[in-house]
Design goal:
Layout (H helix, E strand, L loop, with lengths): L27 H6 L2 H9 L23 E3 L7 H4 L11 H21 L3 H7 L8 H33 L22 H15 L19 H16 L9 H16 L11 H4 L5 H4 L3 E5 L6 H6 L11 E3 L1 H6 L17 H6 E2 L4 E2 L2 E2 L21 E2 L19 E5 H16 L12 H12 L11 H15 L6 H7 L3 H4 L4 E9 L2 E10 L14 H6 L11
Antiparallel strand pairs: 1-3, 2-8, 4-7, 5-6, 9-10
C-alpha cells in the first residue's frame, strides 16, 4: 500500500460539539508549539468517520441491498445492483481513503504527544499550581484522547475489513508522497489488531461524557466495546468462519456480554424508540445511543427522500415490498388494509399508501397525487420515513438535525443473541452471561410491541432465522442489511432475487395491491469483498494483492 493521505492540517468540520476544523494560517513553528494544537490534532482523527446519510448517491446505502430501490434513473448504487463494481468503479472507494486518513490522523496525534511531549505542551506558559484545576482537566482530556486515538484506529480498521477483508496495518505516521509501501495483513491479523487496540485501552476511555458536555461526540468505553463486539461477530460469521469454529462464536458472544454487563456502563433500550428516537437530536440524549456521528442541521435527507409530489422531494431510496412484508401482523390481517395491525415499526419508518405524511395523505393509484406513473415516483409503492423530519419546508430551506447512530444498544443485544445462540443455543445461560439468546431477542421485540407473536424457536437453526428476521426489521436502513447478507453468505441468493414492490390500483374506494417485480439484481461470488482500486494496486509496487475476481 502507498500511504497517500492528505496532510494532517487539511481536515474538515465535524459539526456540533466536536469541531474538527483546524486553523492552518499559523506558521508550522507556531502550530507545533501551541498548546491548542494538541486538541486540534486530537479532534482531527474524528473527521473522516463514516456519516451514513451520504454513503452512496449522497444518501443511505439501503438501495444496495433488498431493503430499498433507488428511483433516480442515474445513480451510483446501480453498480452494486447490477454487479458492476470493479477496480476502476467502486462508489465506496472514497471510504478506503477516508479510513486511512483517519488512521493517519490518529497516528500523527499519538506521535505528536508521545514521550512526554503532550504533557510538556500542557505545562508550557502556565503556572500549574495556580491553574491546577484547568491543568488537571487538560491532563485528563489528553489521556482520554490518547485512548480514543487507539479506539479510532480500531473503528477505521473494522470498517475497512468489513469491505475489503485483510488490509495493510499502518501504525506510524507517514507523510503524503513519501513512497512507503506496506503489504496486506490477513483478515484474522486485522481482527486481532482491532481487539488488541480496544482491550489495551478500553479502561482508559471515559464511560460517558455526561459530566463533560463539551466532550460529547468523542469515543467512550462503550463505543470501543461495541466496535469489538461487532468485529468479532463478523469474524465468527460464515464468510470468515466457513467451518463454524465454536471458539469464534463464543468469543463474539463474550465480547457483546462484556458491554452488556460492564458496571461502568448504563445503556438501556429507549422506551420511546419507535416514535421519536431518530428524530432531530433525540438520539444524542437517549440511553440507547452508544456512539453517534454528529453533523450540523441540513435538509439533504428530506430533499432526496420526500415523495416527488411533495415540494422539493426527489423520492430517492424507497423501501421494498419484501421488507414491508417482514413486519409481522399484530392480530388478524385485513386484506383491504394490508398495512394495518402491523408491527408499529412499519408505520414509524415506512410511508405506505394511505399514510399521512407531510400534512397530506399519500395516494398512489392512477390519477392520484402520488400516481406511481409520475417521473421519479416510487417504483415500489413505498417511501422512506425513518430518519426524516415530517413537514420540513424545503422551499423555505428549513433544516433539521440528522445524527448518524453508528452503534446502539439494541444492535449489541442482537449481536449477543446471534453469537450466543451459535455457541450455546437459544435458551442456555452459561456462567458469566447475563441472559439467554431468546431473552435478548425478546427485549427487542417487546420494546417494539408486546403484541408481536412470541418467538418459540427451540433449535440453533430456527433461532438463527429468528435473529436474521429481527435484524432486518429492527435495523432497517441503518447500513447493516447489505453487510449482514455478505457475512451470512446469503447474498448469492438474496441479491440475485428481483426487487419487489406493489402495483397500486383502485376499484371504487378500495385500493388493490398487486406484488410485482420492479428491478433485477446481480451479485457474483467475488462480490463478497470489494476491489482495491487499480491505481492503489499499481502504486503499491506489488505489496497490495487484489481480491480474487477483480
Amino acid at each position: 500500500m502507498v500511504v497517500s493521505a492528505a496532510a494532517a492540517l487539511t481536515v474538515s468540520a465535524c459539526g456540533k460539539f466536536l469541531d474538527t476544523a483546524l486553523d492552518t494560517h499559523p506558521s508550522t513553528q507556531t502550530v507545533q508549539t501551541a498548546r491548542s494544537s494538541i486538541w486540534d490534532f486530537a479532534r482531527a482523527f474524528y473527521s473522516p468517520m463514516i456519516y451514513g446519510f451520504s454513503v452512496v448517491d449522497d444518501n443511505i446505502f439501503a438501495a444496495a441491498s433488498d431493503e430499498a430501490e433507488q428511483t433516480a434513473a442515474s445513480s451510483e448504487v446501480i453498480y452494486f445492483n447490477k454487479g458492476m463494481v470493479n477496480s476502476s468503479v467502486n462508489p465506496l472507494w472514497k471510504y478506503y481513503n477516508n479510513c486511512y486518513e483517519g488512521i493517519r490522523a490518529a497516528n500523527f496525534f499519538l506521535d505528536y504527544v508521545s514521550d512526554g511531549k503532550g504533557i510538556a505542551m500542557l505545562e508550557m506558559g502556565r503556572n500549574i499550581i495556580t491553574d491546577a484545576v484547568n491543568y488537571q482537566r487538560d491532563v485528563a482530556s489528553l489521556n482520554w484522547y490518547i485512548a480514543e486515538a487507539h479506539a479510532a484506529r480500531a473503528y477505521y480498521y473494522s470498517e475497512l475489513i468489513k469491505m475489503y477483508g485483510g488490509v495493510p496495518i499502518v501504525e506510524k505516521t507517514q507523510e503524503a508522497g513519501n513512497g512507503a509501501k506496506i503489504g496486506r495483513s490477513t483478515y484474522e491479523e486485522c481482527v486481532e489488531y482491532i481487539v488488541n487496540e480496544i482491550d489495551t485501552y478500553k479502561d482508559q476511555l471515559s464511560p460517558s461524557w455526561k459530566d463533560y458536555a463539551t466532550y460529547e461526540g468523542r469515543l467512550t468505553k462503550g463505543a470501543a466495546l461495541a466496535i469489538k463486539a461487532r468485529t468479532l461477530l463478523y469474524a465468527a460469521s460464515p464468510l470468515h468462519n466457513p467451518t463454524g469454529e465454536w471458539e469464534k462464536w463464543d468469543r463474539a458472544a463474550r465480547a457483546a456480554a462484556e458491554l452488556l454487563t460492564d458496571p461502568d456502563l448504563s445503556y438501556e433500550l429507549d422506551a420511546d424508540f419507535v416514535a421519536s428516537y431518530f428524530r432531530g437530536g433525540n438520539s444524542l440524549t437517549s440511553k440507547e445511543s452508544i456512539f453517534v456521528i454528529r453533523r450540523g442541521t441540513s435538509n439533504a435527507m428530506e430533499q432526496k427522500n420526500y415523495p416527488i409530489a411533495t415540494s422539493g422531494g426527489k423520492s430517492g431510496v424507497c423501501p421494498t415490498h419484501s421488507l414491508v412484508e417482514a413486519y409481522e401482523y399484530i392480530g388478524k390481517p385485513n386484506p383491504s388494509a394490508p398495512y394495518a395491525n402491523r408491527d408499529p415499526r412499519l408505520e414509524a419508518w415506512v410511508v405506505t399508501n394511505g399514510s399521512t405524511w407531510n400534512g397530506r395523505v399519500i395516494a398512489q393509484a392512477p390519477g392520484e397525487t402520488d400516481d406511481m406513473a409520475r417521473t421519479n415516483a416510487s417504483k415500489t409503492g413505498y417511501y422512506l420515513k425513518k430518519f426524516l423530519t415530517d413537514e420540513l419546508n424545503l422551499t423555505q430551506d428549513q433544516k433539521a438535525q440528522h445524527n448518524w447512530v453508528a452503534y446502539r444498544y439494541a444492535e449489541v443485544l442482537l449481536n449477543y443473541a446471534e453469537a450466543l445462540n451459535e455457541a450455546y443455543g437459544p435458551n442456555s445461560v452459561p456462567p458469566g452471561f447475563p441472559m439467554s439468546a431468546l431473552e435478548a431477542l425478546k427485549k427487542i421485540r417487546d420494546r417494539a410491541s408486546t403484541g408481536l407473536p412470541q418467538v418459540t424457536a427451540g433449535t440453533v437453526d430456527s433461532f438463527r432465522e429468528a435473529v436474521k428476521h429481527e435484524r432486518r426489521v429492527e435495523l432497517a436502513f441503518e447500513d447493516h442489511r447489505y453487510w449482514d447478507l455478505l457475512r451470512w453468505k446469503d447474498a448469492m441468493t438474496v441479491l440475485n432475487t428481483p426487487v419487489k414492490g406493489v402495483k397500486i390500483t383502485k376499484a371504487g374506494n378500495t385500493y388493490i395491491y398487486t406484488p410485482v417485480d420492479v428491478a433485477t439484481r446481480k451479485f457474483s461470488s467475488y462480490n463478497y469483498y470489494l476491489p482495491f482500486s487499480r491505481s492503489e494496486i499499481e502504486n503499491s509496487g506489488g505489496t497490495l494483492v487484489q481480491n480474487p475476481g477483480y
